[in-house]
Amino acid sequence: MAADDRRLDVLVVGAGLSGLYLLWLLRRRGLAVEVVDKAPSVGGTWWWNRYPGLRCDVESMTFSYSWDADLEQEWSWPERYSKQSEILRYLRHVAERHDLMRDIRLETEVTAAAWDPADEAWHVETSRGPRSARFLVMATGCLSVPNLVAFEGLGDFRGDWHHTAFWPEDGVDLTGQRVAVVGTGSSAIGAIPEIARQAAHLTVFQRTANFSIPAWNAPISPAQEADRKARYPETRALARTGATGDIWPLAPGKARDLTPEEREAELERRWHQGSFSFLSAFADMTTDPEANRIAVDFVHRKIKAIVKDPATAELLCPKDHPLGTKRLCVDHGYYETFNRPNVDLVDVSAAPIERITADGIVAHGTEHPVDVIVFATGFDGMTGALMAVDIEGRDGRRLRDEWAEGPHSYLGLMVHGYPNLFTLTGPGSPSVLANMMTTIEHHAELCDQAIGHCTDLGATTLEPTAEAQAAWDEEVQRAAYATLYPQAASWYMGANIPGKPRVFLPYIGGVGTYIRTCDAVVAEGWRGFELSGPPALQRR
After folding, report:
1. pTM above 0.85, yes or no
2. Alpha carbon of 316 to those of 167, 335, 522: distances in Å?
3. What is the CA radius of gyration of the chain?
4. Do residues 35 and 12 make contact, with C-beta atoms less than 8 angstroms apart?
5. What is the pLDDT of residues 457-507, one digit of tens each?
6. What is the DSSP letter of 149?
7. Phi-psi region of 10 (alpha: psi -120 to 50; beta: other; left: phi over 0)
């Protein structure tokens, strides 16, 4: 494809969940919009990630678009928690159904973007030539830049190695192989049970034990499907009013207000409900250390009841962070996998992996022979994809430099000094602390409203004020430190990336609170933003 010199109204980077919806929204305004993505397919994270066992950790009928009522009724999700392949099929269908592909340019990587004050536009460098657009929207995802740990000796390894975020499209045959999985976060917890069923032997290297709650996945019956489809308007509205963007029932009260028997019964009920419902067992689960300890003790007992070897069970019990303060994992037989005779757990918390040799991995002075290594070492969360692009704003300022000590934004949506630049589900928004489908849809709609506000008024630029941004940055940290979350060395804090500043990245005040805040901002004439253009426009 030759470089296109056509001036766009909006260039969207990323053809995942948010990019597809935003394209649909902006088209209705009659704007010239283009979406670019470096992948060869739409789907975003659901194209890049395809490791064995990958499923969404939010229920299928909640993790689906709400903006196409006919599609809601027509599409049938086969299971409570969908496989990656089913979600990708769904997103490709959406793109085809709404003829979105004609405005999407795949295999096009954005490397740099610079604001031109004379042209009042973003000039963007891509692998397929330059582009120019009045508005630039970074819909690049919160978990899209893998954390590739530089292990000593990896180049000497004679076997194959893979990262869960770059799994080959045609799969990997692990039958009869000796496999190592490095990491025990969400990706590993999803992959380990499936890999164990294929491999001759699996060795899991664990630095940090993580809390995981069973999904209890099962086929969706016709009756369940019909009931949920009949209640879509109700459940979609409910998802936008609560804290998590989901529809789990609210907690019955604070732990201290319940008897020990009531607490145990509620935890048991939530365990068998599965998934993130567990975090709503008590209203003070993530704010009161004693309430959290009660839940931790319960999960520890569950782990020890499932895992037969006491020493292995003890290693699998997280002890270095409160429950929920690292992203809770949702599993499909994870703990049961360690009862298999072909699975070993190696603890590398006190002494990390020393090196990789031609034939295996050395830890604690012992070489573990393996044929294949699977790295499940996570992502550079929330800021990684934004800082991977060289973004230059007003007066030569660079986002990489200004975010060197931590990100700054207003509502997680825009950044002072970078006019007409939007960061969908960016740092400072609820995003990863909630059902991403709910937060993505809301942010895409907010972005669409902002662009519509500019075009309707004839304004040329929209930008948050420095004061509004500073106040929101303060609110994001205030909300975080009112909870137990900062006690964990999590990727929410940037702790998994060497040298990354320890700043709490998402907004933890709740999806409902956040949406009401944004609604008030819009109702008050886009409070905290300033417009430029015709002389009649005044600072908002």
Report:
1. yes
2. 26, 8, 47
3. 24
4. yes
5. 999 999 999 999 999 999 999 999 999 999 999 999 999 999 999 999 999
6. -
7. beta
